[in-house]
Amino acid sequence: MGNIGFLASYNGRWFDGGFAAPGYEKTKNGTRYRDYYQEAKRNLEAQATKLTDVTFSVKDYSEVTPHGSFVYCDPPYANTKQYKNSRDFDFDKFWDYIRQISKDNFVLVSELNAPDDFNCIWTKEVSRSIKATDKSKAIEKLFTYNKGKYAQIYKR
């Protein structure tokens, strides 16, 4: 169920954003067939062999207390369509948590925007739609806390 809910739901929205059905897409050279689920599955299988000494947890982020670790956070994006189970997400509490764990860990947060005391260290324009006719774009960003232990590594 988890595999289908994440890999086959559009935009990783757990059955909330439509289904990533196989089909043809337009390219500059014509059309090509895409099976998004199979692509995601193959990618996951290829990456899995490289994951060593990694711990995956299914719990509320605030229950995770890392020390001397690399932490990647991908919270629900503020001011966008929310997942069914994250409509009450407390963004202020989340950013306070990131400030706290950044004292002892290397922390990256994927978001569209962050509070002023965070540094944007990377940006990339990305498509926001699976439809070939929808040209919606957004700027994906990675942030670090500017007073965190590793803040100077990625100072822009």
UniProtKB/TrEMBL annotation:
UniProt key word Transferase: yes
Transport keyword on record: no
Source domain of life: Bacteria
Name of the molecule in the record: site-specific DNA-methyltransferase (adenine-specific)
Reactions that this protein is recorded to catalyse: a 2'-deoxyadenosine in DNA + S-adenosyl-L-methionine = an N(6)-methyl-2'-deoxyadenosine in DNA + S-adenosyl-L-homocysteine + H(+)
PROSITE patterns: N6_MTASE
GO BP field: DNA restriction-modification system; methylation
Keywords of this entry: Methyltransferase, S-adenosyl-L-methionine, Transferase
Enzymatic class: transferase
One Pfam family linked to the record: MethyltransfD12
Species of provenance: Ruminococcus albus SY3
Gene Ontology molecular functions: nucleic acid binding; site-specific DNA-methyltransferase (adenine-specific) activity
EC identifiers of the protein: 2.1.1.72
